[in-house]
Structures
1.
Amino acid sequence: MITELTDAQKARFPEFVERWSSIGLSTELANRPRAEAGIVLAYKAANLPPPRIVWTTSPLASGLGRAVLRASVRASVWDSVRASVGDSVRASVGDSVRASVWASVWASVWASVRDSVRASVWDSVWASVRASVWDSVGDSVGDSVGDSGYGQHDAGWLSFYSFFREVCGLKTETEPLTGLFEISQSAGWFLPHEKICWISERHNALLRDESGGLHNLNGPALTYPDDFSIYAVHGVRVPAKIIEKPIALSEIDIEQNVEIRRVMIEKYGQDRYLLDSGAEMIHVDGYGELWRKNQQGDEPIVMVKVVNSTPEPDGQYKDYFLRVPPQIETAEQAVAWSFGMDAGEYAPEKET
Amino acid sequence: MKQQIRQGDVLFVKAEKVSGEKLSHTIVAEGEATGHYHKLIGLATLYQDGLRMFAEVGIGVVLTHQEHAAIPIAPGIYEIRRQREYHPRAIRNVMD
């Protein structure tokens, strides 16, 4: 029984977070031989003979492939793989470590990897595959996302067991996971069935913002080799047309979905939107101008217009807009807020 | 009022003491798109404490940037603030 982790063991938390996060976010081509060996091992751990392996270009292609063959492939075996592999490992690792150790590795490794992989990327792929398969072939196969193993996107929970395996020596207890470890490090989602297992390539492009949400204002935020792609802005999935086509002011005003409208405004340019849509200037002082645009169903857009203190090469001073919280009332307050201060507190002596 | 010096989106605010880990460089902030950066030249040490940054500045130090005039920084301890912008709090994914 492992009752506590040594400092040296705890010091390895960041290494596992980093390693498994990059596995989850990898955009490299699949390592097919390694993934195929992993599938055979995972089936063996569930007492199943090796399946025929079919490579696809995206989780969507796997789901559609299965939809076509649905009648002849019998049910997914993911439940039995999960039960004989996942649940048994969970139980035997659970028996070998004290609850406090379990909780500490959970919080430090699993939760962090999950935040970067599952919350930002897996969620979007899941929702998008489900919606697309649903649209294409009806609800009888919409469940293909639930029957999947998530390959690289299983990095969250696998990071947890990999820590116990490599750092705490729980080799026997985690042995049944060997196949899933291999798959996750070499490919994308897989759909395991008794005689056949579809397995997808990894995503080949993945763009995220600073906080890890899928994000690209100029194209898809995530793509697979077959062009199955997901458009998203700051983690919010949006229809492709919002990103791919220029946005007209009139389209923004009729958009009912607040989140989508925010994305449209960001794409249009917040400052440009403010000026084009008839915002009003609500305050002026030596620090700049404060502009406000009220919006239906969403908080007002309030921005301060300030002048760059360094001239452009042609001697002109350029304006720029900064968005500030809606309750701000003066330009001074707005500029002070942008540096984390209250009005009256902000007073640079020198500025360039 | 605490003494303040500003260069573009960076504000030096006089502070009592530094905190956090010593950094091995003197780049205060880097532009995301442009590759331009604010950098202290001379006898200066930066400290990072989570999202906060501090500088210990000796004699004859200047703050430089590709687009802004260099600005001398008097010796002392400073907290360095980056200009921030407001983002409305995210509403959860509503596409489904």
2.
Amino acid sequence: MLSCYRILDLTDEKGFLCGKVLGDLGADVIKIEKPGGDDSRRRGPFFHDIPDPEKSLYWFAYNSNKRGITLNIESSDGKELFKELMKTADVVIESSALGYMDHLGLGYSILHETNPKVVLTSITPFGREGPYKDYKGPDIVVHALSGLMYRIGDRDRPPLAPSYSHAHLIGAIFGAIGTLIALYHRHSTGRGQWVDASTQQGLVFASSVEFQAVWALYKEIQKRTGGNSQTLQIKGGKKISHPLLWRCKDGRISFNLTLGPSGEKGNKALAEWMKKEGFDPGFLGHLDWKKMDWSNIEKEEIEEIFQIIAKFFLQHTKSELFEASLKMGFHIGPILTFEEMLKFPQHIQREFWIDIEHPELGTTITYPGGFSKMTGGTCGIRRRAPLIGEHNMAVYEEELGISRKDLIDLKQRRII
Amino acid sequence: MESPRPFEGKKVIDLCWSGVGVFVQNFLGYYGGTIVRVESSIRPDPIRAYPPFAPTYSKDEHPGLERSAYFSITHPVKEFGLLLNFNHPKAIELFKKLVTWADIVCESFTGGQMEKWGLGYDDLKKIKEDIIMFRTCGYGHTGFLASQPGFGQTLSSVAGLNSITGWPDRPSIPIVPFYSDLLSPLFGALALLTAVDYHHRTGLGQCIDHSQVEASVNYLTPIILDYVVNGREFTTTGNRIAFAAPHGAYPCKGNDRWVAIAVSTDDEWVSFCKVIGKPDWTRDKKFSTLTLRIKNIDELDQLVGEWTTYYTAEQVMAMMQTAGVPAGVVENAQDQAEDPQLKHYEFFRELDHPYVGKLNYYHPPAFKLSDCPAELGRPVLLGEHTEYVCTQILGLSDEEFVQLLQEGVFE
């Protein structure tokens, strides 16, 4: 659906996902690496745990669908080649430190001069302007400055950042959204523009509801709550701790207790199920769920409800509880291991997982499928990430018309 | 001459309730789209009834449907509010009329609900051939879970998002209670914006089937591949990672104040040692290389944590970042509201609201377009523009409107 757009991708891990998702939607994304390969190919995990630049699973994950060329844009010959590529490009994506592109003579004004239609998308930890613009922002630092980290974790330990670093994925995906809006704007203006995406702001988007609401309303600072609960405001402005993950026989589940009319059917069925199993549901058996809502419930009442339910869940497995919830209409989400996720019947029925050929590894690898199903075209992975310089010939020789002799010279001069 | 805003003239019907959908279509609202939000007062959007509420009501009054901070903070663009009671056949008829006006219909009901009303994609296409329909639900619109309701809280577990944060000796914990509600719509927005662009170029509409779980799983691809290829399930490691040390949150002067520090390169280590006044650590047999620092991480963390307590988090951040060492204040809500970087971008903005007053937690998306600022608008009230939409957009006469009102169509 986006196959009419050509995108030059100069990013490192901070921006990979931006080009990747635009590629999922059909754009021709050319990943430009330095000769010898991108540094981020050193990032694990690796295929069969073999640390090799052609075996980084991180690289595989977020460079699929892209074509790959090598180019030393720090050399003067490299810059000229890049400007040639620029002539047919619609978008340039970059995630370098502030000033790097200007230093190379490839800043926005130069790019815009070369091709006024081009959209430049910069994905950085804090944005291209402001007091933090030069700050370094690895995952944990952006998490800290986004407010998310302060509230994650236990009171007896320091605040926690996710063990799986993914802050920059969120900055990158905002970059991709901004890119599409800029491309659409181009239909009416005829001009490209600069998209300045900030990972910090992206994470604030994920924390503002939890954080800024109570700060703005009550000047109250939410603290770490042991991680596994959410503070809810109930009758008389009192606060209770709403558990998020509940233990069961073989793992943990999410359970979302819905009060009021929409929760009535499921909650009644849950209490009935308890009785059927010979489990005493206590006063749960005769509550008028329809009339209950968070703003009129008593602290003692809701805490007792939580206790009864928690005890009951311990007697059942994740799948028993999930299946029952589907039938009875209460809301449960089992914590799936990856093993379980790959076999999850809904994913199988929707043919979510996609096997992709990796001929040089002599195997196929199963990838998560597209993030949406669209009747207008394919959305999702079509081919594996490029090898180092895999499309040099296709791009330089066939598209730019550079002779074989010149290509050999460029190679020897370490330009490509 | 001022150029038109990107989505000027694009007409959107918003049927989305709860989370997710709103974050998708907000992007159209920020940049010039015209959105009519269709709600019902018989079965109101549960987010409107979700705490915390602005404390602008008296003790014996119910907070009502206009005071939820969750609703207002997530609806920061201008929308027209229309009440329609879909149990009434004339409401369905009016809705169909609205579809002839619209370019895009967004909905987030459980799978099959729109079909029950006779408003599935095939039905809408008959009304308007090139309509774009964006549909989001928990598990997607096909498969045996299509009609299951989805909640970010439960779907985050199914999607694996509740398994990636935690201490190695304690169970994993959620990042925010409904993380998938926030992460999956960013993918949904890409799909919708692509459909809008594709329509501009080809004149073709389409239907987007967005599954919250499937989109969320796309954030975890590297660790899923690690399982697929190496059979390794992800395990949490607290704040420690394999390629940086020190790497964590360290206590600072004050009550519950912390700074995050991450040192990965040798240059950063040399600078770090200089800042804390221990240049000899670069030659210390326990800390001179990254491998040694990771091996002796407990002792290193202890020593770093002793040094940081003499300074405020802001001081440590400034000293470290000036020396080229990554560090950041672990910001709480107040820090976030006062963050100089966010202020520079005017990230949090004030809007006035008849029920909650002036608050400054509304914000644009996490990017800035050089030629086109995002526009914010006060959250729409339930059915605020019912009469306007009926008479000005749908062309009903005043008499017709009053008649339908008495019949209970606008409830």
